[in-house]
Amino acid sequence: MEEFNIKTPNLVEGISDLKRQEILDYFNRTFELDTKLYETLQVEDAFYMRADPLRHPLIFYYGHTSCFFVNKLVLAGLLPSHINPEFESMFAIGVDEMSWDDLNEKNYNWPSVDEVRFYRKTVQKTVAQLIKDLPLQLPINWENPFWPIIMGIEHQNIHIETSSVLIRQLPVDKLQNGIFNEVYKEDNEIPTNELLPIKGGEISLGKSHQHYLYGWDLEYGNHKETIEDFKVAKYLVSNAEFYEFIKDNGYHTEQWWTEEGWSWKNYKQAEHPQFWVKESNSYKLRLMTQVVPMKWSFPAEINYLEAKAFCNWKSAKTSKKLRLPTEAEWYKLVNHCKIKDADQWNVAPGNINLEHYTSSCPVNKFSFGDFFDVMGNVWQWTETPITGYAGFKVHPLYDDFSTPTFDGKHNLIKGGSWISTGNEATLHARYAFRRHFYQHAGFRYVESEQEPEIRVDSYVTDEEVAISCEQNYGANYLGIEKLPLQLNEILKKHIANPSTKNLLDLNCNTGRLAFEAAQNFKQVTAIDASARFIQPAIELQKNGLLRYVVKDEGDLQVFKDVLLNNLRLEKPINPVLFMQDDAMKLKERYKDFDAIVAFNLLEELQNPQLLLNEIHKRIRKDGIFILGSSYQWNKAITPKENWLGGFKKDGEPVKSIETIQHILSSQFTLVEKPFDLKYLTRKSSRDFDVIISEVSIWKKK
Amino acid sequence: MEEFNIKTPNLVEGISDLKRQEILDYFNRTFELDTKLYETLQVEDAFYMRADPLRHPLIFYYGHTSCFFVNKLVLAGLLPSHINPEFESMFAIGVDEMSWDDLNEKNYNWPSVDEVRFYRKTVQKTVAQLIKDLPLQLPINWENPFWPIIMGIEHQNIHIETSSVLIRQLPVDKLQNGIFNEVYKEDNEIPTNELLPIKGGEISLGKSHQHYLYGWDLEYGNHKETIEDFKVAKYLVSNAEFYEFIKDNGYHTEQWWTEEGWSWKNYKQAEHPQFWVKESNSYKLRLMTQVVPMKWSFPAEINYLEAKAFCNWKSAKTSKKLRLPTEAEWYKLVNHCKIKDADQWNVAPGNINLEHYTSSCPVNKFSFGDFFDVMGNVWQWTETPITGYAGFKVHPLYDDFSTPTFDGKHNLIKGGSWISTGNEATLHARYAFRRHFYQHAGFRYVESEQEPEIRVDSYVTDEEVAISCEQNYGANYLGIEKLPLQLNEILKKHIANPSTKNLLDLNCNTGRLAFEAAQNFKQVTAIDASARFIQPAIELQKNGLLRYVVKDEGDLQVFKDVLLNNLRLEKPINPVLFMQDDAMKLKERYKDFDAIVAFNLLEELQNPQLLLNEIHKRIRKDGIFILGSSYQWNKAITPKENWLGGFKKDGEPVKSIETIQHILSSQFTLVEKPFDLKYLTRKSSRDFDVIISEVSIWKKK
């Protein structure tokens, strides 16, 4: 299928006019392939059948890829207006599982295939014309107007594959092969799988924004991982190998399954892989458009849950620690095999990009050195839930491509399948599906003593915590410096020789002050009463990465990524000791500090007087106590009888600072006149809270 | 009682050293008089008896006046610390009706009279020493450190009088005359009262902050009133004249009483004035320390409710419109009689300042020209509920002296009584009590066709409305100009020749923009959906005065007074037409405007699209529509399906401005690129909300 050899273009090198032509070709070839795919639907009513009861019928996908071009190009300001607003609404939403709740077929009155075909042609012409007319300057990076065009093409490539999976679920009598007639017909002798060693070591994942191939947002960034030596299965697990599991009653033995897996198995009443067709006592194999005799040498196509159950069963049988590879282990395998990226292939080294077959093929057909099918044939499930690498940013034109899947419930698949084209066929491709989901996906197992580290790195969406994250790590607004940086300046001013001193931050929130202070102090202990607030600080210290979501206009959101590295925080003398603890019930060990900061803590306490009465016990002679509060007493937190001020006593107004001075003066000397500190809280892109806290600085007598 | 001739000193003129001595004398004489007053308590247990079941026993007041000195001087920073913190808490609160709810005798464990006497002496010495030591510079104004000292002295003068009323309610066998033995013994022939004419005209009330005599906060400011010609009773109503009412069954005839009065009468089962003592079929009269045969020529001492019932009865009997005077009418009478202020008396012109008697005296004893007892003898109830004059400010050291009584329930008494000393005996004195309350107070009636205008001018305490008042009329904070002034600049920039044009402010809030625009426009119509918000604007337009309370620290409050005059708003061409109306259901008559402003309105509407669709019908060709919003959509107000933006549609983010442009473009041309406008809301002295609204300016096609 030479005409559909769809390789994603180099966006950095080349000559503009040739590049324009290359992109136009790429666009047209992808569009044509997509068109041809739907020609496998022999009858029109196949467009309206539900291949999967929880997915739209194919007529939706037939319109969707064109509608996507229009919507993104309008959003990018490259098209002046919509082409068919009705279609561009109808075909916009409901692509995947994320929208299952919304999927109510009653709401749709699908147009005819002819209408959609005509719409597709209009869009194809419009986009082609745009590619011809739009000024082109290399490199094509995120900001380049060609980026949304490539985005539309790659989006179409994705749907070519996912629609092929849906077609595979339609009745074969509604289908024809069309151009997809190069299925692999033989069934090889079945090879015995074996585990071959791979050397461990550090590996670096993620690409830079200067990379010359198109990438989806989640491919960028940098993630380092150290892998122990491990062994990898030479072949993908074949249908034959998987059948051992079935024969051993694997689908009926709860112990092999994860809880999620067992629950899915029972719900689906699964007895074998979905594309196996059981006929009396034998199996056939469903390919995209046809059912063929079982190919025992083809890779078993299963979901993650089945693959995991197989590994558990096989571990027990072999007394080995078998599991799926992590994403990093898969890249170790790729590096081991010295695989080149798609743009450098003459011919695809595996069954990928439609360059060889229009189906999967035996697991011992394509070798990459010692291993087979490292890329291509079918996708390979991994143990790794998808998340952005450190430095992840969403692309503004498609801010929900990845982020909804950063939930720990979507596992990465790697390597591509026979129908993976464009970006899907590149080494950096990162796609993920829910663990129960079916794609043209199988698996290979690894043997390793190393427990895969499962990082979820989901976005902090707890509004209060996210607001604190932005206050600690976000931008400055209205010309007001971030609160923790202001506090750090106070520390610098009042505490000499910090490198010999211990600091206690009694209300560290999401931790910025502690990180900053750790640059200078011998040791920083940072306490917060709430796990919700301290968790992001701990994650940031551990992973160097913090993610949160803040409010834009209305319900729109802005995704924020913070890298500890980017904050210019060098490796501190000692890492911050973050602790969740109640400042009202401080443990004995919190003592002998040279400096204590308690900012906006008093108003969070049930009895602030108690803290002020006791704080001198925690601090050394001549130690500095920095106290700040906005005195926003809230009866629900601090009963009025415990307020420090802000009320009338004996008819006269009592200011909180007076009570503070009264209590602290017995053990401390006031270093300078209390002063106001102004800081800001961002509530949304149009709403900010400016607070004025009063700061007093005390020296222990 | 020459030694207690207590005249409040001139605080502006004089020589410092002499002034210091004058103040010291004034302090000591007042203190001594207060001490002597309590010597009328013959036995110690009289200190602990409840003269009034809803008031503290006299032991409280015995301590209170000294405690007040200490508390205010500590607050002012003139005393370094409290003298007896326990006393200064115990004797601080519970002076008057405002605190009746708190008055639970169980909470008090009163000290002995000796202890309090000792405390008083200590305080007297301390304050005397302070008067001797404190640097003194004339004039003594609000900011002068001597002000709180004078405040304490005047406070003591007040309590000399109010305690004398409480003593008058104790059993006479517990009392002795002490120095208060100069009671008026005779009973004059009873004069026939008559009504004498007074010329009406404009009168100006209130004194300036440069005035040379001490004043309580509510004496300052300026209030103008125009009074019709009226007639005033020559004498206060005597016991004899009042007895006619009683004999005519006045206490049992509901029609003479106000609803409040009848309710009080029934509750108290009142049959005659409180200090009349009924013995079989005759009456005696209770004076401060003794009961004497009824003095029919003495003024009837009653509360406002009884005085009002008498006037109603007498009006019916005489077919005249009789009522109590207003405060302004009382001053007309004072002016008519050319009465000099206390500091200019050689001898008091009436029975006041203890210069003549230690009791009231016949109503025909002291003449002021044609009239008797214009000042002195007993206080005179008026029709006027107390309120601050325009320009009223609270003194920071005593912010609740007046404001709790600005509730429409406290009526002014004027003229002073035989025991009114210091500030009480000055012409500007303004004291008020609840209408059912007893003091040494009587009344005179006036005849007038004019309905007294009852201004309450209570403080806006509704938090949201008060915040809007501050946003419209308050200070600038954080260097951000007030929102309505920013909007007025936009009007000036975009609307030429406003003096020929009509403006509609569709969301006028508390009205500042409308007042500002009325300076330039031919006519301004200002609409708000909420009566709560528009009411202060209407009051401000009507009375030139607006009062509201904003939050300081905790529950502390700041009282704010706004004078239309002080905003440099000249008399506009036409006054603003303020209307409460729903922008969603605008009446037909709102049309043909040359300019319409709708700021922060969209987010308050159930269906903002509807307003945008219809607004062109209200505006002339080439008219300007100024739209601003922060797009803070709230599902509780605007259902999400009606939001203009801030959501994803067909997977793509929709910004509100896009929808606005889409809707308005059919009838309007966008004048310039939409821009951001930053403004501020003060929530408390330490908490501000900064909002960024987007403004777009449209010209009607």
From TrEMBL, chains A, B:
UniProt xrefs under Gene3D superfamilies: paralog of FGE (formylglycine-generating enzyme), Vaccinia Virus protein VP39
One annotated GO molecular function: methyltransferase activity
Domain Sulfatase-modifying factor enzyme-like: 193-446
GO terms classed as biological process: methylation
Pfam families: FGE-sulfatase, Methyltransf_23
Record has Transferase as a keyword: yes
Name the record gives this protein: SAM-dependent methyltransferase
The organism's taxonomic lineage, starting at the top: Bacteria, Pseudomonadati, Bacteroidota, Flavobacteriia, Flavobacteriales
